[in-house]
Design a protein that fits this description.
The protein is an all-alpha fold and about 140 residues long. It has 8 helices and no strands. The two termini are about 35 Å apart.
Length: about 140
């Protein structure tokens, strides 16, 4: 499932006893293995439709995956990084769709609150950005 691991094993030509994963914490690796095991041995995840049809992940993916991704925000973002680093597309799709569902239908202020983002725009800069991107709100 991981293109990174697959290419490392192919490049080495023999079974490696150790695969360096410096960017992946133990707890995240455990979640990653749980996903890959379920995805390959139990039930492959359906492709996620875009744009998302719902903010509720249970409406977007099978129940197991919706339950799996119901995790703390910090772990979610570490899973995104790990899935990207290890090149595991289905997990990257699931984690990114989860973040998109957290953003869907929210105002900029609600998004800042949800993700602890500090608004460093002055009122004038914010007004200018809103004016330049008014088309986004109309869509």
């Amino acid at each position: 499932m991981s293109k990174l691991v697959k290419s490392m094993m192919e490049d080495d030509g023999e079974c490696m006893t150790e695969i360096p994963l410096p960017n992946v914490k133990g707890i995240v690796l455990k979640k990653l293995i749980e996903f890959c095991t379920h995805h390959t041995k139990q039930e492959a995840m359906f492709e996620i439709e875009k744009p998302l049809k719902s903010q509720n992940m249970a409406d977007v993916v099978q129940q197991w995956y919706a339950n799996y991704i119901n995790i703390e925000q910090v772990v979610l973002f570490e899973l995104i990084l790990a899935a990207n680093y290890m090149d595991i597309k289905p997990l990257l799709d699931l984690t990114c769709a989860t973040v998109a569902s957290m953003i869907k239908g929210k105002t900029p202020e609600e998004i800042r609150t949800a993700f602890n983002i500090i608004n460093d725009f002055s009122p004038e800069e914010e007004a200018q950005v809103r004016e330049e991107n008014k088309w986004c709100e109309e869509a």
